[in-house]
Amino acid sequence: MGGSMKAPEKEILGTKMNHRHRPKITALVVDDNMVIRAIHHRLLKDLGIENQVAVNGKEAVDVHSSGQYFDLILMDMDMPVMNGIEATRKLRAMGIHSTIAGVSSRSLEREKQEFMEAGLDDYHEKPLTADKIVSILHKISNHSG
Amino acid sequence: MERNQQLRRQLASMRQSLFDQGHLDEQFILLEELQDDANPNFVEEVVTLHYRDSARLITTIERALEKSPLDFNKLDGYMHQFKGSSTSIGAKKVKAESTQFREYCEAGNGEGCMKTFQLLKRDYATLRRKLEAYFQLARQAGPNEIACRPK
To answer: Of B26, B34, B49, which has the smallest distance from its Cβ to A43's Cβ?
Structure first.
């Protein structure tokens, strides 16, 4: 699993991303699993990305309804109360243009397709690695550029 | 000094055996790479979180397996959550058994589910015990001893 990034690479990437496009990239980690939230929070923080967590899709929608904005949303598929597919649809309907990357342990193409059609910009299988996050971050820079 | 070196050798050996015996996979190494001076106990914290979370799921699955008839959709849902958490700490054997359990759920095979669950609980308990011993030794050995990447 190619998940490692050397510290200097992370720093250069963080500087490049932040310097060229906006003061600081922000992210929202949406996952009902506390272990995944802790890992993804740490991965993002390690890359210099300020991030918050939400425990389900409804919380993610509510935090946006309160006026907050994030450059990147990491959206889990299977969550109680409101799942990732429904949350993604709602956020897009609200006019949220953030980069939304679906994250799931499901591997069926059909399930992935349904999630993508809800409005994702990207999709990755869990668990995320630093390399996967970097590839997602490049989509943010493409959106901004 | 010599005692410390002995502890570190013991720690490295303990860690390597977890991989050699198939209990852990490369995801555990990813967690180690996220550990640094600012977060010196990150791996132990995440593993502790996992065991707190997964213990609840184990109990839930046990109760669900006592019901008749079995609700395979519910069982699959619980195991999906359990598998996700186990995968995130690199629990290789437990992850494989979770996958097997879900396959039995899909096939509606209650006996298969129960047998696999017993194996899963055994390996889950074994890994938990080994990791607890590992972290205890790591604390004795001192900081910066957990992130030892295999050559």
So the answer is: B34
Torsion sign (Cα): B1, B2, B3, B9: positive
User: Could you tell me the two tokens for B96?
Assistant: 């494989």
Q: At what angle do helices B110-141 and B72-89 cross, to 10 degrees?
A: 20
Non-local (6+) Cβ contacts of B57 within 8 A are B78, B81, B82, B85
Asked which of A70-74, A132-136, B63-67 is least confident by mean pLDDT, the reply is: A132-136
Residue B108: left if φ>0, alpha if ψ -120 to 50, beta else—which one?
left
Q: Give me the pLDDT at residue A123, please.
A: 94
Give the whole-angstrom CA distance, residue B79 versus residue B54. Answer: 10
Ranges of residues in chain B whose predicted pLDDT is under 70:
143-151
Q: Which residue of B has its CA nearest to A106?
A: B80
User: Across chain A, what does the average pLDDT equal?
Assistant: 84
- Asked whether the predicted pLDDT for residue A21 surpasses 90, the reply is no
> Cβ of B46 and A126 within 8 Å?
no
Quick one: average pLDDT of A96-121? 90
Question: Residue A125 class from Cβ within 10 Å (0-12 exposed, 13-18 middle, 19+ buried)?
Answer: middle
**Local confidence band at A39 (pLDDT 50, 70, 90 cut-offs):** very high
* Contact assessment for residue B75 and residue B64, using Cβ atoms and an 8 Å cutoff: yes
Q: Using CA atoms, how far apart are residues B150 and B29, in angstroms rounded to an integer?
A: 9
Q: Is B70 exposed, middle or buried (0-12, 13-18, 19+ CB in 10 A)?
A: middle
Q: At A144, is the pLDDT very low, low, confident or very high (cuts 50, 70, 90)?
A: low
User: Which distant-in-sequence residues (6+ apart) come within 8 Å of B106 by Cβ?
Assistant: B72, B76
Can the peptide bond before residue B40 be classed as cis, meaning omega within 30 degrees of 0?
no
Q: In this complex, do A129 and B30 lie within 8 Å of one another by their Cβ atoms?
A: yes
- Please report the ipTM that was assigned to this predicted complex: 0.80
